[in-house]
Amino acid sequence: VQLQASGGGLVQAGGSLRLSCAASGLTFDIYALGWYRQAPGKERELVAVISSGGSTYYADSVKGRLTISRDNAKNTLYLQMNSLKPEDTAVYYCAASQSFYEIRLGLRIPYWGQGTQVTVSS
């Protein structure tokens, strides 16, 4: 199984980015998928999760600004990031699990991508 995250970069506050995570080696449409992030000196935290059926869950800090979506035909997960803030600066990781609740709680997640850096300047 491979999860390949891409799309990170440097953007000014208020700007937008779209992250992608291309998956291979798994039956993509039965997996719950998520985005986590880790800022320097901080623990990894949940950003958003999407179930196999399309239900979503967001961390309070990103509600209304970030949108998670998936394209099962392309085996790809997305994170549309709008109205970015300096506190969104982090390495963003995609993750896959057959359990929506486990991936939401950060438990026993079997598959992780390599991370993509997002830097938001003020």
Walkthrough of the structure:
- The structure is a single chain.
- It contains one helix and eleven strands, in the order βββββββββαββ.
- The model has no long low-confidence stretch (mean pLDDT 97).
- The strands form two sheets. Strands 2, 4, 5, 6, 9, 10 and 11 form a seven-stranded mixed beta sheet that branches. The chain has a four-stranded antiparallel beta sheet with strand order 1-3-8-7, with no helix packed on it.
- Helix content is 5%, strand content 50%.
- It has one helix at 100-105, and strands spanning 2-6, 9-12, 17-24, 32-38, 45-50, 56-58, 66-71, 76-81, 90-97, 111-112, 116-121.
- The chain starts with a strand and ends with a strand.
- By secondary structure, it is mainly β.
- The longest helix is centred in the last third of the chain and has 6 residues, at 100-105.
